[in-house]
């Protein structure tokens, strides 16, 4: 059973078919990577899924709920979270306050039945659990904007996790990172498979081959092939079109 499905997703920009009948599935607990050359339509697809762009045709379904016509924040409410290529942290606020805000936004009215002290404790516990999960427990007091890039990306992931997503969209989480930060991000994403299914767009092929249960190759808006790392590495068209060999 698929947790997440896109069926026949089409997006046109004028005469250009940026995505052309894209069918994708993500199984529960799966890391599904989407790769493809520049201009293949990867970011367009992420924008269609998260609702930042309306689709011209097709359907997007998460856990049995048709998201296609829903606004982005409603998609989040139904279990879809996204990390942006540009981080969405509040730069002047501490790591702790960024996390508290995200946990509070997610909790919504569910703490209203608690006493104030209990609610504060629950919020703080949630924020600390997220900090632990992404490895930021030692920098809770730092203004988020003063963290190095790799840590800001981790915070960005933690903010997305606060929504307790069923599917997490990661659009180039390793972009702009050096080797050490990339390794840490790979380890983090690997740990997240216990919490959420992941649709991973990433240029770093080592990371993709290490993490992905399945890889789909997008070329000119179409899925050229889908399969595990061995299948994709051995696919002759992928080698010529994408890997450049
Ligand atoms: P990728 O993320 O795989 O590099 P994109 O999804 O950004 O690819 O782009 C796919 C194609 O759609 C490209 O040819 C790009 O120029 C075009 N495109 C993307 N966004 C727009 C837009 N807002 N208006 C017009 N063309 C766009
Ligand atoms: Mg892109």
TrEMBL record:
Name under which the protein is recorded: ABC transporter ATP-binding protein
Protein's organism: Thauera humireducens
CDD domains hit by this protein: ABC_Mj1267_LivG_branched (cd03219)
Pfam families to which the protein is assigned, alphabetical: ABC_tran
Ranges of residues in domain ABC transporter: 4-245
Keywords carried by this UniProt record: ATP-binding, Cell membrane, Membrane, Nucleotide-binding, Transport
GO cellular component, one term: plasma membrane
GO MF terms held by the record: ATP binding; ATP hydrolysis activity
Keyword Cytoplasm: no
């Amino acid at each position: 059973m698929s947790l997440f499905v896109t069926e026949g997703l089409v997006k046109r920009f004028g005469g250009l078919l940026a995505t052309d009948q894209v069918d994708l599935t993500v199984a529960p607990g799966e890391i599904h990577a989407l790769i493809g050359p520049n201009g293949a339509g990867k970011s367009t697809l992420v924008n269609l899924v998260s609702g930042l762009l309306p689709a011209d045709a097709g359907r997007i379904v998460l856990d049995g709920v048709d998201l296609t016509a829903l606004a982005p924040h409603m998609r989040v409410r139904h279990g879809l979270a996204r990390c942006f290529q540009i981080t969405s942290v509040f730069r002047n606020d501490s790591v702790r306050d960024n996390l508290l805000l995200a946990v509070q936004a997610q909790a919504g009215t569910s703490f209203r039945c608690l006493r104030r002290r209990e609610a504060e404790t629950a919020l703080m516990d949630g924020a600390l659990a997220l900090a632990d999960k992404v490895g930021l427990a030692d920098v809770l007091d730092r203004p988020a904007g003063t963290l190095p890039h790799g840590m800001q990306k981790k915070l960005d992931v933690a903010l997305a996790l606060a929504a307790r997503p069923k599917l997490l969209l990661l659009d180039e989480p390793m972009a702009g990172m050096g080797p050490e930060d990339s390794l840490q991000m790979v380890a983090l994403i690997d740990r997240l498979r216990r919490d959420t299914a992941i649709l991973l767009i990433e240029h770093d092929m080592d990371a993709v081959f290490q993490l992905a249960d399945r890889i789909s190759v997008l070329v000119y808006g179409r899925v050229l092939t889908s399969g595990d790392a061995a299948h994709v590495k051995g696919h002759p068209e992928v080698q010529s079109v994408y890997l450049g060999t």
